[in-house]
Amino acid sequence: MAGGATVGSSRHIRLDPHTLPARSFPHGEPAAAAFVIERNQALVSLPVSNGPARTMAVPIAAYRGVAVRMEAIGNNGDVRAFVELLHAESALTLLLASSDTPEDLAGDWQAWGRTLDLPLLVVGQDGSVSVPLLNRGVTIAPPKPRRRHSYFAKRRPRFLTRRKTGRPELMERLSGREIIARN
Known about the structure:
Distance between the termini: 78 Å
Number of helices: 2
Number of strands: 11
């Protein structure tokens, strides 16, 4: 379980991708959503201004992917990184982890992608979403059969058809006395 951090707070958020269901209840932020992530769905409780919170069950397949986003903090070059479950509707985007050291979140980012079976995404400074290079793989075609003709698949290979089968020849017999220690 992890609590949300207020704006400017030094507290970090980290939900463990290996222990599902993961729960987050934000403290101090009235506009943030409380949520529970399971393997196949996310239960999101969105606050409503004039009534009780609205709870929705969103399938994990409806999310675009697990995104990493970085924001500059101040003018001295410090960076805060966020790992989010990215949805097309920004109110349903869920914060999974945040830290001032992006290196700490790299493992969580990949683990959330594997756990939820979602693609890894990178959100740029301008808000554009792209797929990182480590996620772009070469498409591998199914393997082709080794032999061209399935007609000959159960027969001997072509290069062995030219060879002659072995002939049993007379084997040389060795004779001798067996030496065994008996006393």
